[in-house]
Structure formats: structure tokens, C-alpha cells
Fold this sequence. Notes:
The mean pLDDT is 93. With 309 residues, the chain is of the alpha/beta class. The longest helix has 17 residues, at 241-257. The protein has 2 domains: 9-237, Phosphoenolpyruvate-binding domains (TIM Barrel, Alpha-Beta Barrel); 269-298, no CATH class. It contains 12 helices and 10 strands. It is 39% helix and 14% strand. The strands form 2 sheets. It has an 8-stranded parallel β-barrel, surrounded by 6 helices. Strands 9-10 form a two-stranded antiparallel ribbon. The protein is elongated.
Amino acid sequence: MSSKGRVTISHIKAMKRRGEPITMITAYDYPSARLVEDAEVPMILVGDTLGMVVLGYDTTLPVTMDDMLHHVKAVVRGTEKTLVVADMPFMSYQSGPEEALRNAGRFMQEGGAQAVKLEGGVTVAETVRKIVDAGIPVMGHVGLTPQSVHQVGGWKVQGKGPRDAVRVMNDALALEQAGAFSVVLELVPTPLATLISKRLRVPTIGIGAGPGCDGQVQVFHDLLGLYGDFVPKHTRQYAQVGNVIRSAIAQYRADVEAGRFPTEEQSFGMDESALAELLTTDDADDATEPRPNGRRVPVHLSIPSVPPR
Ligand code: KIV
């Protein structure tokens, strides 16, 4: 990663020329963006998978421009060097190049992103050209395009048969010709993805497309094991953060319920004379405070003087 300024699309294209594998991961908010940047990953995708892994929808279709902009801004605030790609949500570009350009422009101008991504091949090539001509870098996305999940009939590998394989290849070529700086290949058989990666001058970024792609992208929550109940076949879980979080929260709850948290260490004192003045006006019985666990906590002069943070 460049030590000064942000990674640019020129860096990403040069990585392909040098044969350096490109890593990309999704992030959706300020803390995840900071963690990704700390790991020196050159590109973040603020994906519309936001809808599924953060907002709890079944598909990406309900995600709106406003949802995306809110999260793109947070990710940009959490990064200084990483190239941030904003994913264009369903119906933000499908109705035509003019609307697509307007929405892509919002991601750059209001969101602070450095590039946008949209799904589709030959059918969106004119739209891609329009956005690129306006000076906005575009990442393409072919193979399985989740915004068309109902048209495709499910989350299926694309390009297994001869006609389908030619379609995926032509889609990728059309995006390159339209000026895309890279192309995501999602759920594409390894031999086809490898062939496309050799044919294209711009980098391919695979997800479920095998090791022959120029780079890889994965969803933050999948890689880190935030959800134990579903692990896509194309993911390797590098941690089980969900279990770590669950166990920490359960310990916190147990400590609160047992009166072990907070202790003096996490508490604040006050001026003793101010407290003494209060206590003289109070009934002695009121100088203790009931807690839900039945304990009464004394409010007396031994409260330590811990400086406020
Ligand atoms: O929205 C997303 O996270 C994506 C990746 C799966 C490539 O498009």
C-alpha cells in the first residue's frame, strides 16, 4: 500500500501488471473500516450485502441509496489510505445512464468514495461508459449478480455450460471495453474465471471464482465468523468473532447480575464535603440505594476519589 495518500485505481491496475494478488474485503461502518485499513488491505467494498449482513434482509434488493450513502460516509471516515468502492444498490442505475450517473456522483460527492461498483455486463456497458466518462472509476460485477437473484432463480454458479460461459466472458469483456477499472467475478467456475482473468487487461476480483483471479473479495462478516449459522462455500473463516462477542457479553451480564461489575475501579468519586452536605439533609435509611439484585449499595464518604475520564 502506498505510504502517502490513498490507493488509486492506477495502483490496483499496476498490481495486476506486476502479478501481485489484490485483496479486497467489504466493510460497512467506521470500526470495520478502521480494522480493515489497519490490516493494510488496499481496497474496501461498501457492498450492498449491507442489506443481508448488517440490516437483516434476505436479499440485497431492499437496500436504498440513502442506506448506502449513510454507510459509505462512515467507512470513508474510518479510512485514510484504503480505496473505497461504493456499491450501487438495486434500482439506482437500472433505469438508465442518466440516473446512474447522478447516483454514482452522489457516492463521490456526498459519500467521499473513490469508485463505484455496479452489476451486469453487456446490458450495463453504456451506463458504465457514461459514468467513466464523467471521471468516476467503475468496478464491474458479472457471474452471479445478486440483484438479479429472482431472475436467475437462486444463488447459482454462472457459466458452467458452453453458452453461459460465453455470456459471462462477453459480459466481462464488455465492461473492460466500457472503461471499468476492474471486474468482480462472483460464483464463476475456476477454469472460466482463470480464462477471463488472462483475457482481460484490467484486474478480476473473484468471490467463489477460484485462485486464477487477479484478486479476491470476501464479506467481512463471513471471513470473521460473525454468524455461525451460515458459512458460504467460497469463504474461509479466519476467526470466530461471533463466539468471542457472545461469550464476552454473557460474562458482562453474569458480572452485573452477581454484583461484580462495576467495582471501584470503574467508578467515580466526588467531593466529600458536597456529599456530606447532601447526607445531612437525608434520612440515614436513604443513604443506601437498592439494586435489582437485592443488594443495597451504601452512599457514604468512603466513595473513592477517582478522577473523571
Ligand atoms: O455487495 C457485496 O458485498 C458484493 C460482493 C459479494 C462482491 O457485491
